[in-house]
Design brief:
The structure is a single chain. The protein is α+β, with helices and mostly antiparallel strands. The protein has a two-stranded antiparallel ribbon. A hairpin with a 2-residue loop joins strand 1 and strand 2. Helix 1 crosses helix 3. The chain starts with 8 loop residues before the first helix and ends in a 28-residue tail after the last helix.
Length: about 100
């Protein structure tokens, strides 16, 4: 993969938490991901194929795909890209792509 998607710390944390849930549901997201950041994380994860959008009457759910489920298992937390201004303790300094853990 030449244009592999790189996870930010917020994206990684959302995927990691969803992978730990039996339903694979992305929500609830960590409390520090809200507003425009929440929408940005969801949009990027859907675009990368890590998450699918499930439409139900009255609401929408975001669910981890098999690709997204494989991501946290193969990604070293120290290899996740920290976005400028992110201060999460889970936010390391470099980046990783799905091709690096496949």
């Amino acid at each position: 993969m030449t244009n592999a998607h790189r996870l930010t710390a917020a994206q990684y944390e959302a995927v990691r938490l969803a992978a730990s849930r039996p339903s694979r549901a992305l929500e609830p997201l960590p409390s520090y991901i809200r507003g425009a950041a929440k929408q940005s994380v969801l949009t990027a994860l859907v675009a990368s194929g890590y998450v699918s959008t499930c439409y139900f009457p009255g609401h929408v759910e975001y669910v981890l795909t098999d690709l997204g489920l494989a991501c946290p298992a193969g990604v070293d937390a120290a290899a996740v890209q920290r976005a400028p201004g992110e201060t999460s303790a889970a936010a390391p300094d470099s980046a990783v792509s799905p091709a690096q853990h496949g």
